[in-house]
Specification:
The protein is an alpha+beta fold. The protein has one domain. Helices cover about 35% and strands about 25% of the residues. It is built from two helices and five strands, in the order αβββββα. The protein has helices at about 1-10, 50-70; strands spanning about 10-15, 20, 25-30, 35-40, 45-50. It has a three-stranded antiparallel sheet. The relative contact order is 0.17.
Length: about 70
Amino acid sequence: MPVVDKIMKTKIGNGVEYVEYPYLRTFGMLNEETKNPMVRFNGFQVFEAETLIEATFLAVVDFLEWWSKADR
């Protein structure tokens, strides 16, 4: 979970003004149909998997891919 903690403390902005933090908006909620856990950072897509750790991993990878391409 250290990587999740670090992502949640990351400031997103244009270098002058920081407008949001990618906090966990959805964490461990279950999809009503599949009963699979879901994870989402604020402003990013929801990831669903059979386990909470796998859904979290997918959300982290998505954020890191976005971060590596972001114009900061």
